[in-house]
Amino acid sequence: MKPIHKSSKLLNVCYDIRGPVLDRAKQMEDEGQRIIKLNIGNPAPFGFLAPEEIMQDMARHLPQASGYTDSKGLFAARKAIMHYTQEKLIPAVGVEDIYIGNGVSELIVMSMQALLDAGDEVLLPAPDYPLWTAAVTLSGGTAVHYMCDEQQNWYPDIDDIRRKITPNTRAMVIINPNNPTGAVYPDEVLRELVAVAREYGLILFADEIYDKVLFDGVTHTSIASMAPDLFVVTMNGLSKNYRSAGFRAGWMVVSGDKSMAKDYIEGLNMLASMRLCANAPGQHAIQTALGGYQSIDDLVAPTGRLARQRDLAWRMLNDMPGVSCVKPQGALYMFPKLDRKMYPVEDDQQLILELLNEQRVLLVQGSGFNWHEPDHFRVVFLPNTDDLEEAMGRIGRFLDGYRSRHAIAV
After folding, report:
1. Is 318 exposed, middle or buried (0-12, 13-18, 19+ CB in 10 A)?
2. Longest dimension (CA), the chain
3. Exposed e or buried b per residue across 214-225, where buried means at least 16 C-beta atoms within 10 angstroms of its C-beta
4. Paired residues of 232 in beta bridges
5. pLDDT-based confidence at 410, cuts 50/70/90?
6. Contact, 223 vs 174, CB < 8 A?
7. Contacting residues for 163 by C-beta, under 8 A, at least 6 apart
8. Chain centroid to CA 37
């Protein structure tokens, strides 16, 4: 029998958040070593559990959750999402404009599969959440990365976006609050992005999964609320705001001018029907989550656990020689930079692997987020303060050793 190879469609698809460095971490754990994991935004292992009322409501509805739901999702859940879009001032959204998925991840892939043909281009931020790039590639499209400016709080570089638009550009993806940088875009930046989309007739895809994870009094504006005349697809869900990643309850909302998107929406309906439905128990959590007490507000308050952990990690990173980090205003991550004069890294994945082997701390390299230079890495600040302080200390010791080795080599 001939060797069985993966599809050629996967040749340029990569998702390094769960890549070869993680494989090494699993091997080390199998050997009995304890790894401090700062690599993935999964709240539950760090003690951030779903609110009790959500779990109770899911359990209460389990007897009614063993069959298929409507392919777009339970009516009550979609109605609650519709009310949430009204709170966010997103225009022209009815129940039929809402699709519930097995997390936003499924819906990202579905939205790209329904849109793209070979040669179509999609503008994506650099750095990005890599599933977006993977979904574009897997769908036959071409991912074109526009730069986000670290010197300007990681906001999108509007001039760079304009330079990268071609006749093949179909859409632009906005990740706000941003993963991996923690940036939250102010209204003036969002208005510029809308203006570009309006000028070139682009679809806007808005990934807003962290829209309640906000610090320092920062507020979040849905970009769809600023674009009633454009076709906008907005993604959100329970995974982060409600610490319910395992429930796989996400949603996608189409809004604005849908008159030119009837065929695309038909494609979305077709793909939603093909997967039958999203998991029913998770859907039963949505109405309670959106209408209940918003416990995330306590966690992101100045004295809340997430805010304290963010402040600790940010301070300790910036205290390390040759490391600088923009303070995140949202999400669960920060994206520090290494001074290349002090850390002449050529392969950032190798750097992260060496850190894992030497100090048993697991991170993701910047190139895993489609960053163009080997000088960044992403830190997840979900561990409690004791573990986070220990992890930062280990990273600092590793970087001290790296600088010493490089000085000797010179």
Report:
1. middle
2. 68
3. bbeeeebbbbbb
4. 204, 255
5. very low
6. yes
7. none
8. 17
CA torsion 302-246-394-351 (nearest 10°) is -120
Q: What is the pLDDT of residues 326-367, one digit of tens each?
A: 999 999 999 999 999 999 999 999 999 999 999 999 999 999
Length of the chain: 410
Both tokens of residue 270? 């077709």
CA distance readout (Å), 315 to 38, 320, 356, 381: 16, 9, 22, 12
Question: For the whole model, what pTM was predicted?
Answer: 0.94
Q: Is 23 exposed, middle or buried (0-12, 13-18, 19+ CB in 10 A)?
A: exposed
Q: Reduce the DSSP state of residue 133 to 3 states and report it.
A: helix
Long-range CB contacts for residues 22-25, cutoff 8 Å, separation at least 24? 22/362, 24/353, 24/356, 24/357, 25/356, 25/362
Please answer whether residues 213 and 240 qualify as being in contact, where contact means their C-beta atoms are separated by less than 8 angstroms.
yes
Bridge partners, residue 22, by sequence: none
